[in-house]
Structure formats: structure tokens, C-alpha cells
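Q: what does this look like with adenosine-5'-diphosphate bound?
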Amino acid sequence: MKNIIFIAPPAAGKGTQSDLLVKKYGYNHISMGDILRKEASKKSEIGKEVDEILKSGNLVSDEVILKLTEKILTGTSEPYIFDGFPRNMSQAKILEETLVKFNKTKPIVIYLNVNKEEAIKRATGRLNCPKCGKIYHKYSEELKPQIEGKCDECQVDLISRDDDNEETFKTRYENYIKKTLPLLDYFKSANDLYVIDNPIFPMEIFAKIEEIIK
Ligand code: ADP
């Protein structure tokens, strides 16, 4: 099974596809967003700083990301998924060097090409279980919870992330266009790049990803 980097606009479905890959193939899912949210909840000096940045929709500094990368890769078994990392050119370089240092196999890159309107709909409709982390969507038939507002598995109330509002989405999307999207050119030559255009239905996208990773 191949290692994966997901590139996609905010809220495009990287987390949903990662959850499916973890369940079916035992992937090790490394979500930089989840790692940073955990950091933010610690209320340490660095935690407070990260919390502010997450709420603004901007990218956390490369300095913090660099510190986290080595820590993450030491404990990473293969196959792995990088979700939300790298998000700019300097992070791509950091990752490339660290993978060599830790003797890890090079990942392929899967780009989920979702348009802005669809991404905004997904961000504002996303719901998360605070207990198990499962992701739901208000507007997707396939991803709606069975009982409105409740996790199917834990039965607790679902919540929206602080940054899943239209205002913050704008900043996240601008950062994505300016800093993350240009990485595609780099990945075209540095890694194998696969593009999934207009991915809408989660299980259809998953079938395409399964074809790519096998
Ligand atoms: P989404 O997939 O919806 O974009 P994430 O959970 O991946 O959400 O990211 C949430 C926030 O965490 C981002 O808006 C950014 O502030 C921060 N973040 C995540 N990954 C990185 C990264 N690689 N570098 C800097 N900041 C990051």
C-alpha cells in the first residue's frame, strides 16, 4: 500500500477519505490540523499562540511545524497519510529531508480538486464528534448522522470547529490558493501526482483512491 499526501482546499474531504483508509487498510493518519488543535488545547505558551492562529485561518509558523515534524515522523509506521501537510514550499522541503533522514518511503500525492463554492458548503456543513473525532456533514446524504446532531457511534452532541465559518474560511482558502496550490507543480516532478477532479460522493472518491494506492 502506498504512502499518501493529500492536497485539497480546506474542508474538501481529506479527513473523511483518511478515516476510510484507516478503517479498511490500517493507514497511519497524520492530520496536521488535529495535531495543532491538540497543541492549542494545552494552554501552554505555544498552545495559546497556535490557538490564535487556528481561529484566524492563517498558517502556523514553519518553525512550529518543523519542531512537530521530527517528533511525528519518529513514531510513524507505514503506510501513512499526511493530511494538511505540507502546506507550503518550505514545509515540502522539510518533509522531503526528514523522510530521507528517517528512511521512510516516498509518498504519492493525491489532489482532490474541489471548487471554492463546494468547499465553502462543506466547511459550513461539517460536524465533528468531540469524543471519537468522526466527521459528519449536514448537507451530504452519505455523511449525515442517523439522528440529527448526534454521533452514530457515541450518541454525544456533534460540534462545529471554531474555524468552520465563512469568515475564517475566506482566509484559509486564500492561503490555500497562494501557498498550497503552487506545490502541485513541485509534486509533478518530485512525486507521483494523481488528480481527482470534482470529487463529490465520498464512496466514489474512495473507490478511485483504492485504485491509485494498490
Ligand atoms: P482543513 O482540512 O479544513 O483545512 P485542517 O484541520 O487541516 O483543516 O487545518 C486547520 C488549521 O490548522 C489551518 O487553517 C491552519 O491554521 C492549521 N494548519 C494545519 N496544517 C498546517 C500546516 N501544515 N502548516 C501550518 N498550519 C497548519
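The domain at 4-114+179-213 is CATH 3.40.50.300 (Rossmann fold). The first helix runs from residue 14 to 25.
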